[in-house]
Design a protein that fits this description.
The protein contains eight helices and 14 strands. The protein has 323 residues and is of the alpha+beta class. Helix 5 packs antiparallel against helix 6 (225-244). The chain is globular and about 65 Å long. 46% of the residues are buried.
């Protein structure tokens, strides 16, 4: 059995909407930070004694739609490698599933790496990035560590991620406020499709992302955490405006999401540089300079308890591990 570890990534410039549902080609570019605290370990073994794929996540066999997604992905690897064997898949998530904490990114990046190796393929990282994308769009970025750009491309070959700064050498950190880690009611896939098809503001979103990508890459080059945080915050709010403006409108926020946003605004008004971002879920991520960590922990810990605050530094790319 080959086992791979991949870490989640949180988008600073968001991916929200597909141009091609089957190949998972996005409508826009995106840019993310890989995190060291959240990851998935996935082991894969192709065996000639199995009559079906045997998939286990966190000690439980999975069925239904989740199992089909994994089996469809394994079919892609079988097609590329010429293998006809079924696989035993054992995955452990060190991140809550379907809670807006990018569990699918780490899961499919780890699965792509372990399964391709187990099938006898020796893919380079760009090829792994393309492959991981077929399971979950954001997984294309979790192949790499640090700050990563996903080029939207126009087809399977041209849509892949690559690192902007894999070894992050300045003090950016991200803190997750775990507001609710239960499975969300509207999946990212459902939400994206609804926004693309029905939000009157979706054409403007494409233009906003193009501008934000240019500005974000300059802010990273300048190692300007305030500017990185500001762009990420505005980009997240505009993404969530697409959910509110869809038909029917919906939101991933709850009351505590709004409390967290207000708390971060309050901290900033008192001179502490910190910014928020949210993906498809109620949990809030705080972007800040590590020198301000203790002030932020103290303030947010009084509101949400310190046990619900998880601090992450920039994390590594995917790797094969010994289990």
């Amino acid at each position: 059995m080959i086992t791979a570890r991949a870490h989640t990534n949180i988008a600073l410039v968001k991916y929200w909407g597909k141009k091609d549902q089957k190949l998972i080609i996005p409508q826009t570019d995106s840019l993310s930070l890989t995190l060291n605290e959240f990851y998935a370990d996935t082991g894969v073994e192709f065996r000639d004694d199995l009559t079906a794929d045997d998939i286990e996540i966190d000690g439980q066999p999975i069925t239904g739609r989740s199992a089909k997604k994994v089996k469809d992905f394994l079919d892609i690897i079988r097609q590329i490698s010429g293998s006809h064997n079924y696989a035993k898949v054992v995955s452990t998530n060190h991140v809550p599933i379907s809670a807006g904490l990018a569990s699918s990114a780490s899961a499919f990046a780890a699965l792509a790496t372990a399964a391709s190796k187990a099938a006898g393929l020796n893919l380079d990282r760009r090829s792994l990035s393309r492959l991981a994308r077929r399971g979950s769009g954001s997984a294309t970025r979790s192949i790499y560590g640090g700050l990563v750009e996903w080029h939207r491309g126009t087809d399977d070959q041209s849509s892949f991620a690559e690192p902007i700064m894999e070894k992050v050498d300045f003090g950016i950190e991200m803190m997750a406020i775990l507001i609710n880690t239960t499975k969300k009611k509207i999946s990212s896939r459902q939400g994206m499709q609804s926004s693309v098809e029905s939000s009157p503001y979706y054409p403007a979103w494409r233009k906003v992302v193009a501008q934000d990508m240019v500005a974000m890459k300059k802010a990273i080059s300048d190692k300007n955490i305030d500017q990185i945080g500001h762009i990420a915050e505005e980009n997240a709010l505009r993404m969530h405006a697409l959910t509110l403006s869809a038909d029917p409108g919906y939101t991933y926020f709850n009351g505590d999401t709004i409390r967290a946003i207000q708390a971060i605004n309050d901290l900033r008004s008192h001179g502490v540089s910190c910014y928020y971002t949210m993906d498809a879920g109620p949990n809030v991520k705080v972007i800040y300079n590590q020198k301000d960590r203790e002030k932020i922990v103290q303030y947010l810990g009084n509101l949400f308890s310190k046990q619900r605050l998880i601090i992450s530094q920039p994390g590594p790319g995917v790797k094969i591990i010994d289990k």
